[in-house]
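Quick start: what a row looks like.
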Amino acid sequence: MQKGAVAAGHLESANAGAEILRAGGNAFDAALSAFLASCVCEPTYVSVGGGGFMLAHSASGKTVLYDFFAQTPAVKRPPHELDFRKVTLHFGGNTQDFHIGLGAVAVPGNVAGLFYIHQHLGRLPFAEIAAPALQLAKNGVALTPFIQSTIRLLAPILTDSADGKAVFTNKDGEIKSPPETIFIPYLYDALYALSKEGARLFYEGEIGQQLVADCAEKGGYITAADLKNYRVIERKPIQIDYHGQTLFTNPPPCTGGALIAFALQLLQRLNMAGKVKNGSANYMQLMAQVFYQTNLARKHEFDKFLHHPQVTQNLLHPQTIERYALPVANLLGNTTHISAADAQGNVASLTHSSGAGSNYYIPNTGMMLNNMLGEADLNPHGFHRWAKNRRLSSMMSPTLMADAAGTLTALGSSGSSRIRSALVQVISHIEDYKMPLEEAVNMPRLHLENRELNIEYGFNADEATQLQLPHGWHKVIWQQQSMYFGGVNAVAVLGNGIFSGAADMRRSGACIVV
């Protein structure tokens, strides 16, 4: 009898979760173990000092969103006192500015989330869940070509400090290459201490005290009160119907889930199955218009009302959907995601991130903290203008789908602004075009950003070339599949207990069925 399945952004992360399932752990244990392992083997994307979300569906039928994302500090400082530095990254022919340093660090939630979820949903002792990550931290992790490519991309951030250089460069000062090992000094000892002492060590103990002292002395915001007052929040997920599938996803103040739900409601009005050939010019045109109308709705119906209690209901109201569906009908970041399921009916969908990373490491811990206060996408009103003591918004959208036959599917994506376009297309592939999970995850994708339609390699070249777009739009036809288009990892369990899964090859993900 199968015990479950885990899909993650790295083979070692998936192995950690699979090991826990074999040991008798549940899906939540497996997701947490893979989560902790990802902080060791995916250090260019995530760390213990980040934040995230987990959507949990328990065997009892209850579905809860656990919010352990980053929080803004309660007290501000004058900008001239801050360690807040601009770094420019080069993405092919484009550049993007990020801000790093202690002044970019928001209050981290990952450690609180790990222990809170384990306390409420875990089955195995935390020490057992942490064991795979500890082994990886002790021995180091073989560098993969994909992780090396991300190190090169993020090198101006990752190698900005002596701590970063110690992790990502070799003795000659060069970016490490396979088969070299990524080893994070001090991380094993810090993770071992956390596994024994719990979250208080990070938020009130020696680790937190060091962070607070450095912030006060070296230009950060975080105080002892910020750490002590941090809380994991349980939220009621957004729930919609999509062609008979019940879909659950991340609610406000995060933006991603509501916008995914909105786009799917537009697609549902089109009833594309049997009418529009997947991958055709008509398909690309329709999907692009769905994304465009969703962006318009975000601007006019959502962002300005983000903290209003009725914002989701208003956005998804039939009259709102109808208004934005008409133009479509007339046409006929750094993140990782983990999905896990077990034989008892528990399903977990977990996404977490450290942003681009602050490149500040808490001394003698190996823990690099996030740069959420330095991410332009999370600070739409400008840097240092955030509301105090408030959860930051995010595009992260851990998602669950349930159908009448009893199939449960957990999925989510990395990829910053591409998270929602990736998930909308994968969900449409599964439900509208009845694709198997692996095919749905690895089909070519589209992404619309500021009237620029990015068309991933894999679409019919003639159809893509001939595609007609509205005036003022332009298209970019990619010559390869790319991590730019997100990284969806998914698992499914059928009503008869058979498991399947898929990991996104764009980001060298891995899926293991146990």
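That is the whole record. The chain has a mean pLDDT of 94. Residues 281-302 form the longest helix (22 residues).
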